[in-house]
Every structure is written in structure tokens, then in C-alpha cells.
Amino acid sequence: MKTALPAICAGLLLAACASTAPPSVGYSRNLEPIPGSITYGGQPRTRLTKAPVGSIVPHRFRDSFGRQVSETYVIEPDRSLRLISRRIDYDLMTDR
Q1: Do 82 and 29 form a contact (C-beta atoms < 8 A)?
Q2: What span is annotated as the signal peptide, if there is one (predicted)?
């Protein structure tokens, strides 16, 4: 029993480390636009005709809670934008 308890705790800690990150952190294939995103409500009407395919487009804005949001888009071959990452900077002094 003395050796089983540490093994169980180690297994639980290892499982917690292997869990996935929340959707607002890092890269994801299925990020949905939020209010303030370039593609919120559909693709923009103007096409990025001079930028090469595969170019990265950064976008920063404040969300409805006042948090700083940084998004990264990539230009697709059809000139649409695909959201590839989002980072939300939390202010520990004001967020509850």
C-alpha cells in the first residue's frame, strides 16, 4: 500500500500534464472567431491580393471584457483568412 499511493499520484499528475489546453491558448485547427476577430461574421469583403499565399496576418484587439486578444491568421490560396491561433492576455489585477 505504501508504494501504491505514490504510483497512483504520479499517474494522476502525468495524466493532468497530458491533457489538452483550453481553446483560447496555442494552436488549434478549429478556432472559432469571437466578436472583434477579423473573420467574425464571415470573411472580410476586401481580398488580400498583394500578400503572398501563406502570409501571416497578426491582429490585436480588446474583447468585451477589456482583455487584450492577439490572433494570428494565414492567407489561404483562395485569399480567405484562416484563424490559426489566439492568445488572451489576462490582467490578474482586474480579472475575477
Answers
A1: no
A2: 1-21
Q: How far apart are CA 23 and CA 39, in angstroms?
A: 17
User: What is the average per-residue pLDDT within 50-76?
Assistant: 93
Q: Are 80 and 43 in contact (CB under 8 A)?
A: yes
Which amino acid appears at position 54 of this protein?
A: G
pTM above 0.85, yes or no: no
List pLDDT tens digits, range 15-51. Answer: 555 444 444 444 446 789 999 999 888 888 887 888 8
Cα gap 11→5, rounded to integer Å: 10
Residue tagged 488580400 (cell numbers): 48
User: What are residue 47's DSSP bridge partners?
Assistant: none
pLDDT at 77 over 70: yes
Task: Give the residue ranges of DSSP H helices in 1-96.
Answer: 4-17
Which strands sit side by side in the sheet containing 56-62, from one edge to the other? 56-62, 68-75, 81-89
What is the rounded CA–CA span in Å between residue 79 and residue 77? Answer: 5
